[in-house]
Specification:
single chain; mainly alpha; 5 helices; globular; disordered C terminus
Length: 88
């Protein structure tokens, strides 16, 4: 990464289970059709969508993914983990 890119990007931590889902999505036809070819592009796209108010059907999909991640004991992600408490 050159100096220009370093100044334009910031690193944030993402729970491992969520990161694994992003890895899977990047390889999907949906990501390809959206032009999303990297994890950072997927995360930036998701944040833009969220900040723009996102639609209800997409929110329901997010909640479904959260429930799946919470049920899987092999994943390190949990919405109730002390490190990342929900924003109120």
């Amino acid at each position: 990464m050159n100096d220009t890119n370093i100044k334009k990007w910031k690193t944030v931590k993402v729970p491992k289970g969520l990161s694994e889902r992003i890895d899977e999505f990047v390889k999907s036809p949906e990501a390809y059709h959206l032009g999303l070819t990297s994890n950072s592009q997927v995360v930036a796209h998701a944040i833009r969508w969220f900040l723009a108010g996102g639609d209800t059907s997409s929110v329901l999909k997010v909640l479904k993914i959260q429930r799946e991640l919470d049920k899987d004991p092999n994943l390190k992600y949990s919405r109730t983990a002390g490190e990342h408490k929900p924003i109120r």
